[in-house]
Amino acid sequence: MKSSALTPVERRSAISLASIFALRMLGLFMLLPVIRILGEDLEGATLPLLGLALGIYGLSQAILQLPLGLLSDKIGRKPVIYGGLLVFIAGSLVAGFSETIWGLIAGRALQGAGAIASAVMALAADLSRPEQRSKMMAMIGGSIGLAFAISLILGPLLSEWLSLQGLFFVIAALAFMALIVAMTLVPRGGQTSKISLNLSFAERWKHVTAKGRIFVLAIAVFVIHWSLVAVFMIVPEKLEQSGFALAQHSWIYLTVLVLSIVLMVPMMLGAERKKKHREVMQLAFVVIALALVSLFSGFTHIVFWLVVLTLFFAGFNLLEAKLPSTVSNLFGSQYRGTALGIFSTSQFLGAFLGGSMTGYLLPKLGVEGILVLNIALAVAAGLALAFLGKLPEIEKIAIKLDSSDDDSIKSTQISALKMPGVLEAFANDGEGKVYLQVDKSKVQQKELLKLGTVERT
Q1: Where is the Major facilitator superfamily (MFS) profile domain (predicted)?
Q2: 137 domain residue, yes or no
Q3: Are residues 223 and 369 in the same domain?
């Protein structure tokens, strides 16, 4: 396949969009390790309300992600991104100027209303060729992972000099920088032309939900984001009780994140090499459950905390990477938007309920009760993954056509997309070829030969 490298426009698009994500998520993630402790100083603060403040961002995201994604289809990606970042900045300022827990909750809800993730991802797709899209998404995903790692270190460090309100002003400044990047560095460009089948929403929904696999993956992402927020409702205070001041949490998280990557990478490579994707995801849930079970021991030594948190984040980070890629591999381009919409909504609901329910239940059940609940959720999600069935074996092939005129190419793309097992169909101008991504276990060779000469790429 030609043009294996990103073009200058694609490279600029990838870097600028990744920067928008990173700047925005850096601010959000900074709150996770500190909001539980610093928020106790706000007027009217209680554990249930602090949990609601932590989680309500996810509720706003869950409600608005799909509508704003659809709006970006109608009025363009950039207006939605600009508007979303302005709303996010406004929410940060509301929280920053507030001295009450209800002001914090209102600010967090307004932050979540700036739901631009779907518009940014759609713009990344618009500004890239199909064969380069995975690279664009990988760069954006990597920026989020980097922001997560830096924020867990930066949050506790900044808390030494800034109050919780001060952190929100930093978050507003980071979002303003993201807005400047969006307005000045993201290339201008319309949506790329692509071939799509004329399917109604009902038809797409029926296809995506037919075997229930999207719901299995939605449950899994719901559980890991519930658990992530729940852990940060418990662990910071536990670390303080173990003798580690909030400022010391930074180097603990830094060490843990490095160790978790060392543990996660072999698991990821093993999944790819042995084609054991589902089994490795189930193993990740086992690792998370083991980490949570370990917290019953009551140990306070630093080695204990490093081991426990490394296990938790290794499992979480692996699932955070594998689950969305599994969704993309299961559903072709005609259905992927619907599938990812269900998946993302479940993810944000998990974050919302993980914070709000943990805050509500913690005074009633205690830490032990919350741990039991999260262990049960992890075990249930791991068992549910057994219902995924056989995952696709993705292969890229090219169909060489006798004619290279536009009508023949478009006709071939449409015919290919109607075949079982064909996930993507795209073409580069002037090549006289249609490139396909197929599931080897479902696609029929004789059907492909009807389209033209088959070439493995």
Answers
A1: 13-393
A2: yes
A3: yes
Percent of the chain with pLDDT over 90: 35
Domain count for the chain: 3
pLDDT in tens, 31-78: 888 888 889 889 999 989 998 998 898 899 888 877 887 788 778 789
